[in-house]
């Protein structure tokens, strides 16, 4: 901390060194609970990104990619242990940066460590295969690092989603340049410090906080970067893809969602209600995989809509440091304004405001809004079709299975979906027809390091997590050895 109480991280982490940014500028990070500057963090520009990419390329040709994979795994495991040991400090930094309750960010630190532990174990299990295509030929594949990976992070769960990318990238022998979001620039520099302590060699991990239009653009377009892994808005992903096209970078995108949550009349309604409230409002609604559209079969619709509004009204909104708080403020003034604009759209469209819509009582400062429930939402309206990224829930009735499948698929997104029913045949039938990368039955959003995660349509390209993600961070090389003896016939002899 500085003399005036600010959290100061005025250096970037490049090539194993803590270096001043080229421009000398800092990002002022705003505490969303107080609307005041709480941290000054070094701001990277194009020159810094270029230096970081060069350091990553130098490290790629060094011992890291040729290291015994079990040793790489041991370093990742050490990093996981250090995250656990420093969880309280990391959680408090993350909470000051993005407004999540500390009890939530503490949970995310443990999950981040769990993700790294899983990929530490995966490091020596990325195998090639023998292909018996001819008896006198030995053909086999090798899995090799894709190269320098540019990781562009979101602001809602920086450390956790950093580890989603860092784990498989390092396990496969890649090197990285990581750009945290400008809204939450502080915590990933702490991960760099712990990576250094864990024994990650210089240049393997480089961290450059900066603005998307400057540092992010420089990373996406840099010819020395082989792959971009991005989590965020699909509009940004489109711009990244255009920049990445110049050298055909591999791209993995995990973008937004407008997740359908379907409740059939034969469901366990109490269970569906409990899961729905948590799935709609956790993280102040600032998650791409929330159940933001709830479709309820008409016989139980009115009862369900009233019950979910009553439960939403009980959610405690408050300071992130208060243990009694269920959800905190939005991460930024911009995101709060966006949520408020969708609440106004809901009112203007004629939807029925069941609860919320305003600022919580007693919270005059901070980017707060009440958990908000609309019922009788017109499925064709923007509230029903576009991602809000705030604690705003749209509840709609349906009359038939065919109708609700059409409604569930009626957006440009396809990340997560779910349904509640006691009919086993219907569960499998409807799950197969929902256009989402993850569909759950009688639960919602079981995100886990062992489960592939990613979206259809504008929700992204590629998958994260599970052993399947290693395909995204490796290149497959095919090698063929002729085992035959003698001289082959000259086809041009005659």
Automatic annotation (TrEMBL):
Domain Aldehyde dehydrogenase, chain residue ranges per copy: 18-479
CDD domains: ALDH_DhaS (cd07114)
Presence of the UniProt keyword Endoplasmic reticulum in the record: no
Any matching Pfam family: Aldedh
Xref: InterPro entries: Ald_DH/histidinol_DH, Ald_DH_C, Ald_DH_CS_GLU, Ald_DH_N, Aldehyde_DH_dom
Keyword Membrane belongs to the record: no
Keywords: Oxidation, Oxidoreductase
One MF annotation (Gene Ontology) recorded for this entry: aldehyde dehydrogenase [NAD(P)+] activity
Active site annotation, chain numbering: 254
Domain of life: Bacteria
Family listed: Belongs to the aldehyde dehydrogenase family.
Protein name: Aldehyde dehydrogenase
Organism: Aquibium oceanicum
